[in-house]
Amino acid sequence: xxxxxxxxxxxxxxxxxxxxxxxxxxxxxxxxxxxxxxxxxxxxxxxxxxxxxxxxxxxxxxxxxxxxxxxxxxxxxxxxxxxxxxxxxxxxxxxxxxxxxxxxxxxxxxxxxxxxxxxxxxxxxxxxxxxxxxxxxxxxxxxxxxxxxxxxxxxxxxxxxxxxxxxxxxxxxxxxxxxxxxxxxxxxxxx
Length: 191
Description:
With 191 residues, the protein is α+β, with helices and mostly antiparallel strands. Helices cover 50% and strands 16% of the residues. It has 3 domains: 3-52; 56-119, Multidrug-efflux Transporter Regulator, Chain: A, Domain 2; 135-184, Arc Repressor Mutant, subunit A, CATH 1.10.10. It is built from 8 helices and 8 strands; from the N terminus they run ββααβααββαβααββα. This is Helix-turn-helix domain-containing protein.
């Protein structure tokens, strides 16, 4: 079945094999694609010019009057990156809420964080002694898989389900032998 159509790019009439065909040839398709890509680049360049027209001081003045701030606004106000603000929110240091997927921060909470952070005394870092790692008390994941004939993925799921702690040392992941024995019983060390 042939359908009479008009090319979207050049306007020529042609006979298409399907009803969804838009172009008379591959070259028209490619030219139209490049034309659309050029237009989107121009629009993006125009939008970036608009944001560059507002210097930092103007953006800062606009942010100062807002009661509820977005993550970007908080970054502008504190002169830090968006990812720093997101880390503060995730760690619970900065309270936030969502409205239709948009994360907002109350100005009061941001001020409180700043006052709290600036009022903290500068304590010297206390060195925390790490527990000494005794390899004899642990299986690494490959050993568990070999002894119990279970895939690594299954072991991972069981450990997560039971809330058993794993310790990462270099490229190996270790689990306490007593936890594994509770989970799977005595190991079968025969090869």
